[in-house]
Every structure is written in structure tokens, then in C-alpha cells.
Amino acid sequence: MLHRGVGTCLRQHLSLILLLVHAWCGSVDGKREIPVGAIFHQVPDHSYESEIAFRYAIERVNMHEKHFELVPIVRYVSPEDSFKTERKVCELAAEGVTAVFGPSSILTSGIVGSICKTLEIPHIITHWDPEPLGGIDPELQAMTINLYPEADVLSRALADLIVDYSWKSFTIIYDSDEGLMRLKDILQIHGPSDAPITVRQIDDDPDYRPLLKDIQSSGESHIILEIRPDRILELLRQAKEVKMLEEYQSYIITSLDAHTIDFEELRYSRSNITALRLMDTKSFDIKNAVHDWEQGEARMKRQFRVSPEHVHTESALYNDAVKIYATAIRELDATEEITPSRLSCGSKNLRQWPFGLRIINYMKVKTEHGITGPIIFDDFGRRAHFHLDIIELSKDEGFKKIATWDPTHGVNYTRSQGEVYSQIVESLQNKTFIVASRIGAPFLMFKEKKDGEFLEGNNRFEGYSLELIDGISKILGFQYRMELVPDGKYGSYNKVTKKWDGLVKHLLDRKKADLAVCDLTITYERRTAVDFTMPFMTLGISILYAKPVQQPKDLFSFLSPLSLDVWIYMATAYLGVSVLLFVLSRMAPADWENPHPCKQDNDEVENIWDMFNALWLTMGSIMGQGCDILPKAISTRLVAGMWWFFALIMLSSYTANLAAFLTMERMDATIESAEDLAKQSKIKYGVVMGGSTMAFFQTSNFSTYQRMWASMESARPSVFTKSNDEGRDRVIKGKRMYAFLMESTSLEYITERYCDLTQIGGLLDSKGYGIAMPVNSPYRTAISGAVLKMQEEGKLYQLKTRWWKEMRGGGQCTEAPNSSQENELGIGNVGGVFVVLALGCLCAFIIGILEFLWNVRKVAVEEKVTPWDALKAELKFALSISVTSKPVHNTLSESTASGKSSLRSKSESRRGSESVGRANNNVRTAASLSNIDKIGFVFDKN
């Protein structure tokens, strides 16, 4: 790599040394004259400027060249005179020209190119040249070089700009077939499903107003002007007269000479006018060239004035053409001396210039940079790579560069977003917007008049929308005037008439509205017709319905977790298991046991499982408390185990659902979601006719919403309403037989003021409200920025709180939050539990009294005392709460000594037998709990 680089440097230095030696030798002999020809048109246009650029570009070359001097030979022809053009070319060839520049007409240029091809004289042109229908013939184009941008590449630049501007539709105005050919790439960027492109041709009639009015009536706001430069200003002037040069119209001028037109009278129009330029008018090269032109004409005693900003593209291309041709002569002359030859067109022995093909091939591979930027040719001599400036008409400095374009990188903007925003905000100063809206609480309402008060203008209204646009206007500094749409509709598209109504229609007719502010939902269909700012409020569709009527509270609502059938089945199962347990225990040998375990030779066994114990075991199991006695046989244990499992499941289910059933109010039949509405046919439901909610159900692919739309569409009488207020009134009067589907923001407003209405279920979708404006409005970015600023500062939240919960009766349905009280159970919910407890206690008390009286009777019989004495003795003991032990009997008569000793001996005997009985019972219980059938114990009988 190092050796290769060194070799390259040596060859370059050697070439430079040879060039200097040749230049020194040439300077001794003097300069050789090398004639070059040029053909210009005899028409009063900028051809004179092109000729000046050609002559003084040659003069500047001659100032720096030491070996040769270019001698210009100029001829003039008419653009349509092909015969004279042919004769003039042959005259130039006879004078020995080494190249022919021009002419700028496609017709005459073709004749010149054909002759130059025959004589192999370089032909250099500077105008747009379309590609032949059959494609490029390399033989015919072998001697032609064109510095004008290649047709297909230039068309692609225009197409890239349109795509970058997001133009969905546009109208092309052209004046010649050549102009339409230049736009072939633009005509191909739209597909079959895209909006149509309108193409309109203008004739020689200078009145363009009828055409412009037709375009205006179609609603088109994007226009491409492919017309001659001398027609552009007049067409735009007439467009201004018919109100087609407003802020919503945008124009792209395809001519590369648009910057030369004096747009002074149109600089303050609000329309966007964009053009393309091949040169940087602020560069040093173009300023230097213009200086040469003016000074040269001054030496010739002629007046010539032109500013660099108004130099024609053809003039700059002639300057660059001379420069690149002189470079080719200089480089080739360094190796072989270039000598002119006089050639004849009609000679039988046709001769060709031997250096022409070499010069053309060198120019094709040589890369130069001139006034018009980089100059690079393809194999056919077309300028396939170039840079374009995208310029925009501004109020302050005329055309201003905003971006560049090249085939590699496409559109590249040179201004920042901050500059764009500042420019838009500046244009908003002192502008008055017409803001369209509709009456609908709380967004816009008529202000309540006081006695003797007269309201006009914006003071007629109040509401969220008014304060929203007022806040935006204070941020951006514009004025506004609120206007109501006559039909009061939001805006929907009629597929039969192919027209919009409501707010969207007003925006499409730009004379009636600049903005639309209300509860206007951003939808795809509306987005195709108008533009929206970022959403200032998010929402969704929900259901407005009457609140359910609360039924009287039920004392026995604690029974609600289980139905009556389940309670009956449980009671039956309880009795059945108890009976089964009793029967199986009577049959099972393991449940018959010795009542006296210490007496191994006892002939009698007993069974503790009577019906009472069986019922007690199953009751203890289902209550989750268990029992002191347990079955021993496998069959009875299996029955008890299955019952315990059943009792556990039922108890768990009951307790899990008890709280929910107790806290839930007993209501009449109600709905809880959109699915509930779709599944039934008793309760009707509807939406606002023509609104976004209706469009949601019409276009939804979800089966539930499709069924709902079919139900709404077929309902008779109609379930659709003209407004949200009508839907609200219909819900109130419908006695829970009508539900209304509406946007959640409006629903929240209604439920804050109508306490008998409520929201059912969640949101069916998610969307937003936005401020609408005409398509491609230049103010969308600025207004969206103002909305975002209000959101970040919390002003949007404050506005919603103010108009939803404070103004016009808001907040009257709002209850003080108390989460603990919401979950509390009242006596009306659980009172039945206390009733059951009281009844149980009463029954237990009565049974206890009966047991007490029965015991008194037994004591009276056993002790042989009167029932009254036995009752007094038992009551006395029962009321002595400090006594913790009870003797077997009470001393009923102290006067009878024999009675005392008899009672004492009986008491001791009974105490002993009861102690033994209790011990035996404890043994049996312990044995059953530990699953041990037989355990031997030794008791002390003392």
C-alpha cells in the first residue's frame, strides 16, 4: 500500500512537471486560438444573459490560460427554424469550431446534435432534454453532453418532496406536453387506493380564474405548477384574487428559475410557496461571475445589472459548461496538442474532427464543481448527480433556503424545528381565527344572562371549549371568534352524496372555519378529511343507565350464600348421616365396649352411640368444632370422615361467600356490561345518530359489538337520538328499560348532576378529543405545542374539574368517601344471626329449667323430702356462686339425726360410685381418642 501510494504521488508530480514545462514552452510561442461556437435564440428572453455568461466565462478562462485562447463564435436562430439552424451549424463547422454550445430549444438542439455526431464535434447543451420513447441510443448521444439535471432524477426529486410534505392528493397545472413528461415520476407515486391526482392544462387564455375556482370548489389545497416562468406570477396573482393564496393552500413550482421571479407583491400572502433551485445564490463563485458580467458590459459601454439571487439557471449552466470544457482542453492538450479543423457538412469525402470524441469521453469521467454545484455525468453524457436547494417564499427575505436534495440522501432540512415553530408562531400574531363549535354541555353552553344584560360575540358562550381555546390563544398570541355550525353535528361522511356535514364540512370550506373545538373525537375517517392536534382529553365509550332500586333489607340475608334447596339437602344429609352412623355403630363390634375396663371378666358390654350422640357428632363436625367421642369401627370412621370432608367444603364455601352476600344490596334485575346488553333483548339501547360512537359499532369486527349494532339498527321504534341530552332523558324516562351508549366524558358530566343515573361497566374503547383544522394547516404544530404546555402545567385537569364537578350543578351527587363505612354490615344485613342466637338461647334456657325441675323431683324422691324443700335447697346452692363443689345431697333437715347419717352414708356411697364411673368414662374416651381398644388400668378402690 505504501509503495503504491508513493508511485501515485510520483506520477502526479511528474505530470505536473510536464504540464509546467509545456506551459512554459507554449508561452514562448504564444497562445493558440481555439474557436468555440454557440447558438442562441433570437427571442426577448434571458438568452441575452446566457450569452453574456458564455462570453465572459470564456474571457475568464483566457485570463488564466497560457497555451491557448478560446475564441467565441456566436450565431442566432429562431427556436422553430430548423433549416436555418442546420445552416448555422455547418457555418460554425466550416470555421473550425471545436465545440458547439446550445441552442436551448429541443427541436433545434436535436438537429445540432445530429450534425455534431456526424462530424464528431462536442455538443454541449444546458436545457431539459427528455429521454426518447425508445430509450437512449448511445450512438446518437455519443457527442452530446447535457449539464441540465437528468429528467428522471429531477422528477424523482419532486416526488421525494411531495412524499416528505405528506400530500395525500394534489392538482397539477401544466401548459405543455413537455411539462407533463417532466412529472412522470410524480404521477407514479400514488397507488390505486390513494386519493386521485388531478391534472389540469392551461391554454393561451391569460384568464386563469375559472380554472382556479374549479380547483377551489373541489376542496384541493395542494397545487403543483409546471408552467413557463413568465406565467407563474400572473397565475399566482389571480389565485390571490379568488382567495386561493390563503394559509391552507400550498404550491410547488417545478421550474428551476422560480427564484428569478419578483414575488414582492406576494411575499405577505399566507400561502406556502415552495420552489427548487440548482445553485447556491450566496456562493462566492456566482458573485464572482456576476461581477465579471457587469464589469465586462461596462467596458463595452453597455448597462447590465443582475443580482446573484436572480441569475437564471441556463446562464449559470453556460458558465459551468465553458469551465468544464476548458478543463478538458487543458488536460488533453498537456499530452497532445489540440488543433482545430475546418469541416464541411456537404463534402463527399466527409471528415471528422479527431479530438472530439476524446474531449467528450474526458468530460464524462471528469468530476467538476461549478456555480451549479457538483457536475457528474453518466455514460450517456447526462447529469445524473446534482444538488438542489429547496426554497420557500418568506415575508422578510423573499425565497429562503429550507432544505437540500440529492439522489443519495433525499430531502435534508437545513432549518431546525425551533426555527419552524418560531416562524409559525410569528405568523399567528394578530391573526383572528374563526373557531367552529356546537352547543353541548359542558364544552360549550349559552351563558345565563343577567337582568338587562346584552351579550354578543364570544361573551355569549361559556364552557370547557371556550376556556381551552382562550388559553391557547394567550400562549400563541392570536385572536378568535366563536361560531356555531348550523346543523349542530360533529361531522360524518355521507357515502351517497359524498359530502361531509357538521364541523368537518365547515373546515373543508376554509372560508367558514379555521379551527373546530368541542367534544370532537379523533377518528380515522375524519383524519382523512381534516387534521387534528394532539388529544386534549382521553376517553372511551361507556353505558349510561338508571341506578338500580334498592330493595328492603332482609334479616335473614346471611342465609343467602346457600339457596333453599341446598339448605334442605344439607338438613337431609345431616339426618341421613346421623341415622347411618347410629345403625352402623350398632352393627359394628368395635363400637361395643366393656363399661368397666378394670373387670376383664365382665359379661356385659355397652354402646355409647345412641341417636343423640350420633346427631351430636355430625352437628359438631359441620360446625367445625368436633366431638369428645369418636367412632372406632372402620365403617363408622369412613362415614364420619366423608361427613367431615363434606362439612369442610360446605363451611369453606359458605364463609367465603358470606361477606359478599351480606354486603351486596338486594336489587332488582340489572346489567353490568356491554356483554349483558348483547345477550338480552328486554332492555333497549342506542347511540347518537351520526356520531363517532355510532361509527364505532358500525365498523367494529368484534362479535359482541356487531350483535349490538344489528340490534340497534333493527329496533323499532328507533333507539337512536339526535344528542346526548335526548339520550339522557330517554334513560330517565325509560324506567330501566333503555340504556344509552355514549362517551365517558359526557357520561361523567351527566352522572355528576343526575343522581339517579350511573355508569355501567368499563370503557369499550380508547380514543381522544382533538382540535380539528384543515388538512396540512401550518398551525397544527404550534397549537399542539400549546395544548401540551397546558397539560404539563395542569391547566387541562383544572378545566375539567371546574366544568365537570363545580360549575352548573356539578358535585351534587358526589358522596364523601368513607371506605370503612362502604364495607360495614348493618343490622339489616346480619340481624337474622342475632335472632337465631336469641331463639337458641331461649330454647336452652327453657330446657335448662326443665332439667333443673326434673332433678329437683329426683332429689325429692331419693331423699324422701318434699318437692318444695328440694327446690329451695337446689336454688340456694345454685345461687351460691362462691361454692365450687357440690355434695351428692343437701342437708334438708337438721332435726332428724338418723336422716343425716343416712344421707351422709348414701352420699359417700354415691360419690364413690360416681368417681368410678367418671374414671371409666375417661378411660373409654382416652382409648377411643388414641385408637386403642383395650388398655388395662389399676384403680385404688380406697
From TrEMBL:
Q: Which residues form the Ionotropic glutamate receptor C-terminal domain?
A: 432-806
- Could you say which residues bind L-glutamate here? 521, 526, 692-693, 743
Q: Where is this site: Crucial to convey clamshell closure to channel opening?
A: 671
Where does this protein reside within or beyond the cell?
Postsynaptic cell membrane
- Coiled coil located at which positions? none
Query: What are the protein's UniProt keywords?
Result: Cell membrane, Disulfide bond, Glycoprotein, Ion channel, Ion transport, Ligand-gated ion channel, Membrane, Postsynaptic cell membrane, Receptor, Signal, Synapse, Transmembrane, Transmembrane helix, Transport
Organism of origin is Anopheles stephensi (Indo-Pakistan malaria mosquito)
Its predominant location is: membrane
Q: Indicate how the chain sits in the lipid bilayer.
A: Multi-pass membrane protein
For this entry, the protein name equals: Glutamate receptor 1
